């Protein structure tokens, strides 16, 4: 283990969520960024920084496996620093970021540039996807380090759109790295855009990019994954139809994720927040919310991602279809899910699994996703007693809004610890803290 400049930390008296799913009041000793010891009571060594976690709950830091942080090229919406501040405030200690930046992350040079930028300005740990185009087949399996290959099968334009089956087939046939798909059928979307061209209300978004469009693409990805036994991950799965597809037929090498938005919001949201509710794949029906929850509880869906995709309020205020798709998420995802668990919809242990442990397992990120000796000290300490609303003026994401404004949530982070450094301390961001590049085995 390399020495780090992280201080020795002792977290005292918190209710600690352990790998066996139980929670116990314990102290946690952290040295050089690693969890060293857990015990009922531990004596602080001289020089140790103390955190009192009495009345609070200690969880493994959230690993958000799908975010769009906009740097380089789209920094007016967000940048790696502001996004990582939002992460630290939301209890997200690691993120996996998508390639639709400018330039696109489609080669080693662009990946290296992102890694360099992240090292200079991210408060939390980072990993990046490599984007598939029809021309970079060889690069996809060579670049390093990357969490996997991202394919936009739909809802994209330019080189990152890969919607032709022969090209998809080639990508699935070569290499063994994880392939993560945005599964929407571009052909069907284009047809339906024409068919519904008279509609300018944002609710048309869910009609045009309908459930069948998502199902078609998920079916195709699954078919190719089975043909080559290729590791497949379905990003932000949004429909009951796709849950049913996977419930019937989910090979051991396939995983799927769902967003808090698709679990907790549906088409009704357009009425209240208009285009702030517009995302890809779109929000669906209340029945889909129910079936996605069922899929998550049953283990058909494996984990949770925010798809944090910020746009400015000015951009969002344009009339549909000029209004861009996407919502921010990293600041609210953990409190949203913890509020659900406090309401009895799921257990605390399930939230920990879906937002940390299962992600570390799926992306093979060593020493993360659990509070256990030898693991990295990436932790979030939350308050499960107090309820507070999501307030626009408190958000630190550069876009400055949330689709969940006004929602009264519990489980807000009080401290976030990244590699043994306190990155968020009772309302204050420690902007000098830096995360590390994630490793993928
Ligand atoms: O709504 C979305 N917005 N979905 C995506 O997959 C991309 C994202 C973006 O980058 O804005």
UniProtKB/TrEMBL annotation:
<comment type="similarity">
    <text>Belongs to the metallo-dependent hydrolases superfamily. DHOase family. Class I DHOase subfamily.</text>
</comment>
<comment type="function">
    <text>Catalyzes the reversible cyclization of carbamoyl aspartate to dihydroorotate.</text>
</comment>
<feature type="domain" description="Amidohydrolase-related">
    <location>
        <begin position="57"/>
        <end position="422"/>
    </location>
</feature>
<keyword id="KW-0378">Hydrolase</keyword>
<keyword id="KW-0479">Metal-binding</keyword>
<dbReference type="InterPro" id="IPR050138">
    <property type="entry name" value="DHOase/Allantoinase_Hydrolase"/>
</dbReference>
<protein>
    <submittedName>
        <fullName>Dihydroorotase</fullName>
    </submittedName>
</protein>
<dbReference type="InterPro" id="IPR002195">
    <property type="entry name" value="Dihydroorotase_CS"/>
</dbReference>
<dbReference type="InterPro" id="IPR032466">
    <property type="entry name" value="Metal_Hydrolase"/>
</dbReference>
<dbReference type="Pfam" id="PF01979">
    <property type="entry name" value="Amidohydro_1"/>
</dbReference>
<dbReference type="InterPro" id="IPR006680">
    <property type="entry name" value="Amidohydro-rel"/>
</dbReference>
<dbReference type="InterPro" id="IPR011059">
    <property type="entry name" value="Metal-dep_hydrolase_composite"/>
</dbReference>
